[in-house]
Amino acid sequence: MGGMRAVQVLQPTGPADVRVVDVPEPAARAGQVLIEVHSVGVSFPDLLLSQGLYQLRPEPPFTLGVDVAGTVASADGGLAVGTRVAGVVPYGGAAELAVVPAAAVFTLPDDTSYDEGAALPMNYLTALFALQERGHVQAGETMLVHGAAGGVGTAALQVARALGVRTIAVASTEEKAAFAREAGADEAVLRDGFREEVAALTGGRGVDVVLDVVGGEVFTDSLRCLAEQGRLLVVGFASGQGIPEVKVNRLLLNNVDVRGVGWGAFTMSKPDYMQQQWRTLLPMLASGEVRPPIGATYDLADFGRALVEMADRRTLGKTVVHVR
Asked: Which CATH architecture has domain 123-264?
């Protein structure tokens, strides 16, 4: 067994203390695929894991990395060695070799780059799950997307476009609003005063769906933006302003819903679900409606620096780290 480089959390004291260390090479067991990693995505769970704030609490030292793309190094049946793939794991992907369950390994189309591949699994499958499974969005509906310049936000904009849904992006700065437009938003507005903007853009009707990865103080105004029978999809709380509270009388008065979106927990108990989702995503990739916007790229040694940028909310689209 040789050694390999891996990005590890030695103590969960934040992104500045993330280190690249030499660890033994892993081997794939039955039902697993060993991937020679070319690109690894940087994700919000990585940041929380490095701070010891995620719902998963692996015992340190452990390797970060949720989304990977590369080639199959060895697999138990199924995929041929050398096949270009993407994969997703709770953690452990940010290394020269990653072991991924076969159910979470997806063949990459030839014209999808490794960087794009590393931007796809978690964000785009979460977006598909949010919109179709939890939001029941229909063509012709209108959706508001918070954190629209980030990884999940841009994924949701593109999946919505493929599903025939009109999108209004909400972003904290002009630069982020422009990035969201570039990624596929029909309209983009600034977070300050977004409620009035949305009323103007929808002729006072409001939106059918709000996708909220931000939480905090935008939450109540998001509820107020919903049209009759609208759905607010709660994906996360990136604002760090704490978990918002819902006054349930507001739901009753306007006939609106608040729905939780927990893609990871849902897929864990359904072994073929992610593969079905990938099959839904492939035609969207082929048509060009889905094309993950890559914000910044880093070398493996700078994974910690990429997380600091994310903590400072400077990230646009998906940040990707190059392993080889």
From this structure: 3-Layer(aba) Sandwich (3.40)
